[in-house]
Amino acid sequence: SQKIEQNSEALNIQEGKTATLTCNYTNYSPAYLQWYRQDPGRGPVFLLLIRENEKEKRKERLKVTFDTTLKQSLFHITASQPADSATYLCALVVDTGNQFYFGTGTSLTVIP
Amino acid sequence: DAMVIQNPRYQVTQFGKPVTLSCSQTLNHNVMYWYQQKSSQAPKLLFHYYDKDFNNEADTPDNFQSRRPNTSFCFLDIRSPGLGDAAMYLCATSRGSGRALNEQFFGPGTRLTVL
């Protein structure tokens, strides 16, 4: 069956440290992968995307890697801040480009 | 500002009483989506429209229907809500495949309570 799994437990880190979130998938062939941020009671907000033929993408303090052999993406937030506290979702986009399948999300808390 | 708007933000309905949730967008995007998200779970894709072309997910219950009368509006109809349908319903849009790499723009969601 198809699965998208993210860190199973909430992640608590100290301010200033790097947060690393994982996204593992099975039985999908994504054209690309996206990461979103979701705050309580609100819709997800797009952060970054990475194509299947890219190894790494960066945007300010964010970095995403994508390993199609391992079927895994890692999402890093460097120099984390309390304002980064939220749930982070990965989404796989399949070949049609119009269907998005989300992971369960990882709740991140950055402790001052 | 261009955006995705969902009304109402909170909806209470009774078991078995039909309910309609609405979504509008000012982004002029080709694709509109409906997701169901239960507490601490992933958003689950119910269906999407590419322009007027309706695409249903295989595991979306028949109880859920959708209409897209024009580019700007999309509706989610729940014909006979059950207690298990209580959730946050998220509407999203995207430009559509073939138009660079898509990102989705989400509305704030409608939280549905079934009594």
- Give the SSE string of chain B: EEEEEEEEEEE
| SS elements, strand count of chain B | 11
User: Which term fits the overall shape of chain B?
Assistant: globular
CATH class of chain B: Mainly Beta
Low confidence ranges of chain A: none
CATH H level, superfamily name of chain A: Immunoglobulins
Give the termini separation of chain A. Answer: 40 Å
Q: Which topology of chain A does CATH recognise?
A: Immunoglobulin-like
Q: Which series of helices and strands of chain A comes N to C? A: EEEEEEEEEEE
Instruction: Determine Rg of chain B (CA atoms, Å).
Output: 14 Å
Tell me the structural class of chain A: mainly beta
Strand content of chain B: over 45%
Beta-strand level of the residues of chain A, as a percent range? over 45%
Major pleated sheet of chain A:
6 strands, mixed
- Enumerate how many helices of chain A there are, as a single number: 0
| Amino- and carboxy-terminal Cα gap of chain B | 36 Å
Count the domains of chain A: 1
**DSSP summary, beta strand count of chain A:** 11
- In quaternary terms, these chains amount to heterodimer
Architecture overview:
The complex is a heterodimer of chains A (112) and B (115). Chain A contains no helices and eleven strands. Chain A is an all-beta fold. Chain A has a single domain (16-104), classed as Immunoglobulins (Immunoglobulin-like, Sandwich), CATH 2.60.40.10. The mean pLDDT of chain A is 91. With 115 residues, chain B is an all-beta fold. Chain B has a single domain (4-114), classed as Immunoglobulins (Immunoglobulin-like). Chain A binds chain B through residues 4, 32, 34, 36, 41-46, 49, 51, 89, 91, 93, 96-105, and chain B through 4, 31, 33, 35, 40-45, 48, 50, 55, 88, 90, 92, 94, 96-98, 101-109, 111.
